[in-house]
Amino acid sequence: MKPDSFSKGAGPPGKKPELLAPAGDLEKLKVAVLYGADAVYLGGRHFSLRAQAANFSEEEMAEGVRFAHARGARVYVAVNVFAHNKDLARLPEYIQSVYAAGADGVIVSDPGVLDLVRRHCPGLPVHLSTQANTTNWASARFWEQMGVSRIVLARELSLEEIREIRSKVGVELEVFIHGAMCISYSGRCLLSSYLAGRDANRGDCAQSCRWRYSLVEEKRPGEYLPVEEDGRGTYILSSRDLCLIEYIPQLAGAGIDSFKIEGRMKSVNYVAGVVKAYRQAIDAYFKDPANYRFNPAWLDEIGKVSNREFTTGFLFGKPGGTGQHCGSDIYRRSYSFVGIVRGYERDTGLAVVEQRNRFAVGDEVEIVTPQGGPLILRIKAIYDEEGNPLEAAPHPRQIVKIPFGENLPDYSILRKPMENGY
User: Fold this and answer.
1) pLDDT tens for residues 305-351?
2) Global pTM?
3) Domain of 355?
4) Which of 47, 158, 195, 308 sits at 20 to 30 Å (Cα–Cα) from 70?
5) CB under 8 Å to 18, separation ≥6 — which residues?
6) Same domain, 73 and 13
7) Domains of the chain: total
């Protein structure tokens, strides 16, 4: 049974954990930091397990590090590919470039890559990826002795197992608290390679577990057996999304050093909304642990970005069938991300907005800012960059201007309700 989220048995909080956010590109890095992340993790153009993300060039990585450091945030770079022989010649130079960019650590899963980092950049902290599958304190102690400064624990651990590991090692512990869950153990998936020729363990996952499947009997080709959840197929390989925002006291009491949000492939809107909600929850708890109460508005905010049904994963025991998504609609989305603020003209009172989805005069939108919101605005007018009036902003990435009575900070998010919630 899941404990009440206000449980007195959560134990006293230790030090305030780091809130670690995904940064799939430079824009998402800036949004994550501005909306409250203590640190971000990203991938370069090579050796990361998110090859389909935009990722960072060397120049962008250096710029992202400067931006984060100027605001007191840290940057970790994923070098968590399972390396083959051909990768080893290029890895030392790449690791040195990450170090030169000023990264605060690298995330690795391969012992050989760990050894290369230690030999070529001994001053660069190493975090052990969740793909390394650390599920017990003996393994954690081994990696600690190998010089790893932080371990990203396997997602298949319960809260009690995490507490026991914490009691036996001094190394920092990082735990996923939100985002997509891989159906394979610690992300070691062969489905993508087998079905699509894309190696998930080298950053090129085709998300084969999210496909729709049906069952065909061998001797009756073409005859589909009735196992589907709806007329289009079954989603029995697809996990629900992890969401632990209701259990901040329990997580903090377990002595976890870093709360990690999954999602380098997700949108700016996802990064802003999820980071902000967890920031508020963590800050509220550590401000007054004894009187902390979970605010349902935080969960509502998370629900306004695209998500699957939620699960607590393995935190309170094996999830079984309740951890799988079997519905006909994979994603829920009650709001559409329509624009992001790029500036504000004080003399005209116009907010400069880069459009992401269609919105029109007369629409009611919510505006979420890094430090406030949501604010409600009925759009009374839209202008193009030359000042010509528009009825709607129909083109993706189009720059438009809308009247707003006060300054809107850059990277504020505009969203509007969707009629059917999907």
Assistant:
1) 877 788 898 899 876 555 444 454 555 678 899 999 999 999 999 99
2) 0.85
3) 335-417
4) 47
5) 38, 39, 74, 257, 258, 259
6) yes
7) 2
